[in-house]
Design goal:
The chain is an alpha+beta fold. The protein has one helix and two strands.
Length: 59
């Protein structure tokens, strides 16, 4: 639970066939604050942890 009283739900191992449709459907549920799929707006920067340190990929 967050400091604002919101519940965080992490889901692992689920196949997402249409991430944009899933993000839109979850966001349409009353009470949902946000979704962490970010399918509607891609990332500008990706930080990837590797054994040699962090690799930064900039769009």
């Amino acid at each position: 639970m967050t400091d604002n009283g919101n519940v965080i739900l992490d889901v692992h191992g689920m196949e997402i066939l249409d991430p944009i449709a899933m993000e839109n459907a979850i966001n349409a549920i009353p009470g949902v604050v946000t979704v962490g799929l970010f399918a509607n707006r891609g990332a500008d920067v990706a930080l990837i942890g590797t054994p040699d340190g962090v690799k930064t990929i900039v769009k």
